[in-house]
Write a structure and sequence with these properties.
Blueprint: H1 6-9, E1 13-17, H2 22-33, E2 37-42, H3 50-53, E3 61-64, H4 70-79, E4 84-87, H5 94-99, H6 101-122, E5 127-131, H7 156-175, E6 179-184, E7 186-188, H8 198-208, E8 212-214, E9 221-222, E10 224-226, H9 227-243, E11 250-253, E12 259-260, H10 261-271, E13 279-281, H11 297-303, H12 311-326
Parallel strand pairs: 1-2, 1-4, 2-3, 4-5, 5-6, 6-11, 7-10, 8-13
Antiparallel strand pairs: 9-12
Helix pairs in contact: 2-9, 4-6, 6-7, 8-10, 8-12
Length: 329
C-alpha cells in the first residue's frame, strides 16, 4: 500500500485553500508533520476547527481572505514562492447550495478560476491538485462511475463541482498548467463540524442519545472515504503530476461500494455502543441523487493508492473524537 513520500514534501512550499475544513485541516497536519512549509488560506477564523484546536496555526503561514479574490491569490503565490497548490476551498453543503445558489457558484466556480488564473500568471507551480467530487457526475443509470463517465451535475451543488472539475482541467489543456483533479466519495472523519452531514449529525445525536433525524427515507446510497485515505490520495496525486505526466487528468477515490443511509446510522450506533437511540425518517430530502458510487481502479493501477480504512475502521477513529469534542461519553 503506497504512502506519501516525506522526502518529496520536506521543505516544500505549499499553498492550501480551505485549510480550516475537514480535509484541509488533515492535509495541513500531514504536510507539517513531513516538514513542508505550508501557507493556509482561511476565510473565517473557526476556533473549534481541527486546524485551530490542534495548534497547527503556529506552524503555518496563515492568510485570511476569500478564494474569489484573484489579486490576493497572486500575492500569496508570489510572496510565499509557492511550489505546490491544494485547492480545497468550497461551499460543500447541499442544503445551503439550494438556499443560496449564487454564493455556491461564486465560491466553487469563480474561486476556482481566480486561483487557476493566478497560478497561470505566477508560472512557478509544479503541481496543482483541485477538489472535485463524486457529485460532479450527477444522476446516471450506469454505476459505478468511472473517470470516463460524463459529468452531468444538474442540482446546484453538483453543477458547481462539475464546473470546478472542467475549469481546472481546462487550464492544463489550454495553458499547460500542471493541474489534476480528485473526485472523492463522501469524506468523514475527526474534525468535521458540518453537522448537516450524516456522519457528524448522526454521531452527535447518538452520543447525546437524542432521536436521529434523517432527511430522506433512509434508502439513498452513497460511497464513503475516511479522511486519512483522502489525504493520502491528494499527496500521491501531487507527487505524480510531473513524474507520470498527470496534468489534466482526474482520479476517483472511494471505498468502492455503496452504503445506504440506514446502514450508516446503524454503523454509527454500533461504533458508539448505543443501539437503542431512535431514528426518525423525515422523507424530506431534495436536490440529492438516490445512488452514487465510483470505480477507483485507475487510482489503484496508476497511482498505487488503495484505501487503508474500511467504513467501520474509520468510524472507530471518528466517534471517540466527537465524544471528546461534544464532552459526552
Amino acid at each position: 500500500m503506497r504512502e506519501p513520500n516525506p522526502v518529496f514534501w520536506r521543505g516544500r512550499r505549499i499553498f492550501v485553500t480551505g485549510a480550516s475544513g475537514l480535509l484541509g485541516s488533515h492535509v495541513v497536519q500531514e504536510l507539517v508533520s513531513m516538514g513542508a512549509e505550508v501557507t493556509a488560506l482561511m476565510r473565517d477564523m473557526v476556533p473549534r476547527s481541527l486546524l485551530v484546536r490542534s495548534g497547527l496555526l503556529s506552524s503555518v503561514n496563515t492568510v485570511r481572505g476569500a478564494i474569489t479574490d484573484g489579486q490576493l491569490m497572486q500575492r500569496i503565490l508570489v510572496e510565499y514562492q509557492i511550489q505546490s497548490v491544494f485547492h480545497l476551498a468550497a461551499q460543500t453543503q447541499v442544503t445551503y447550495a439550494l438556499a443560496d445558489p449564487i454564493e455556491t457558484f461564486d465560491v466553487n466556480i469563480a474561486g476556482t478560476y481566480q486561483l487557476m488564473d493566478a497560478c497561470r500568471l505566477y508560472g512557478d507551480c509544479t503541481e496543482i491538485v483541485a477538489a472535485s467530487s463524486d457529485k460532479a457526475y450527477g444522476q446516471q443509470k450506469d454505476l459505478p462511475y468511472t473517470e470516463c463517465s460524463p459529468l452531468l451535475g444538474s442540482y446546484i451543488y453538483d453543477a458547481s463541482k462539475t464546473c470546478t472539475d472542467i475549469l481546472t482541467r481546462s487550464y492544463a489543456t489550454s495553458f499547460g498548467l500542471p493541474t489534476a483533479v480528485t473526485r472523492l466519495a463522501n469524506l468523514f472523519g475527526p474534525g468535521d463540524l458540518n453537522f448537516d452531514r450524516i456522519v457528524p449529525g448522526t454521531s452527535r445525536s447518538v452520543l447525546r442519545q437524542e432521536p436521529i433525524m434523517i432527511r430522506s427515507d433512509g434508502t439513498p446510497q452513497r460511497e464513503y472515504i475516511y479522511v486519512g485515505d483522502g489525504v493520502r490520495a491528494y499527496l500521491i496525486v501531487a507527487e505524480d503530476i510531473q513524474a507520470k505526466g498527470l496534468a489534466g487528468q482526474a482520479f476517483n477515490f472511494g471505498l468502492g461500494y455503496p452504503i445506504t443511509v440506514l446502514e450508516v446510522v446503524d454503523a454509527i450506533k454500533q461504533a458508539a455502543a448505543k443501539p437503542e437511540v431512535p431514528v426518525e425518517l423525515l422523507g424530506q430530502a431534495r436536490g440529492e441523487i438516490d445512488a452514487q458510487w465510483m470505480d477507483s481502479s485507475r487510482a489503484r493501477e496508476q497511482l498505487g493508492w488503495e484505501p487503508r480504512w474500511t467504513f467501520a475502521q474509520g468510524l472507530e477513529q471518528t466517534i471517540p473524537w466527537y465524544a471528546e469534542y461534544l464532552k459526552v461519553g
